[in-house]
């Protein structure tokens, strides 16, 4: 199956449906909700027309940074700079991507845009918290058909069980007060990711500098993939990994073509220009499954 950019007529209809699903929240004078669950708590807060989702640890009640946010009046505008960087994967290859897997589905912001701009794309995903998936459907305007392909289970188990090979594999798994999930960052897990990707596929992982294991996680990615690049901003490290030789100018040309024809409300070209290769640091030891087991024992 060849995926081509969605025709303008379909995009117009799709945007209208998204706006219809979001309209009750847009029109509400106040939206503040706490959803309690066994895994974590969820806090939703609307300010002006922007709805934000936070998570918190059930024991410490530590609140995370914003996990997902949406401009209810302009839902195709990606507000998060790191989300904009991740969206570059839609143009990483010469041909439009045919399949994407999102681990740590959250509010589904990337899923909404991938579905809108590449309407025939196969879109799968997972989030360990079923309440998060309910929020993405009930508050963030995700289509029910998309949600049928998203599982409420551990992303490693879910990815292992899938038969599809993905052009894009996006890892964005945080829980509770903002803790990054370590078992989705080991050498063994990244080997699984590579097995589940197409030959020209790209993996993208959202990491943060406050994670004491961040450099080991990057080293784990480098131990599996030949090409590793990073986009950095305010402590966020969006890491791109592939076995295909990276051509930054070709990526820029494809992104420029997208921005010329679609006129999104965010600038992707500056994200392309800020990408840089990650140098291999032999002093940093990749993270193994056994390392995590040792820490737990």
Describe the structure.
The protein is α/β, with parallel strands linked by helices and 297 residues long. It has one domain: Vaccinia Virus protein VP39 (Rossmann fold, 3-Layer(aba) Sandwich). The protein is 34% helix and 25% strand. It has helices spanning 8-27, 81-86, 109-117, 130-138, 144-147, 155-161, 187-195, 214-222, 248-262, 269-273, 289-296, and strands at 32-36, 41-47, 50-56, 68-71, 99-103, 122-126, 150-151, 166-171, 174-175, 179-180, 197-208, 227-233, 236-242, 276-277. It has an eight-stranded mixed beta sheet with strand order 7-6-5-8-11-13-12-14, sandwiched between helices. It has a four-stranded antiparallel beta sheet with strand order 1-2-3-4, with no helix packed on it. Strand 12 and strand 13 (236-242) form a beta hairpin. The longest helix is centred in the first third of the chain and has 20 residues, at 8-27. The termini are far apart.
CATH superfamily placement: Vaccinia Virus protein VP39
Q: Can you summarize the main beta sheet?
A: 8 strands, mixed
User: In what order do the strands lie side by side in the largest sheet?
Assistant: 7-6-5-8-11-13-12-14
Element order: H for helix, E for strand: HEEEEHEHEHHEHEEEHEHEEHHEH
N-end to C-end Cα span: 47 Å
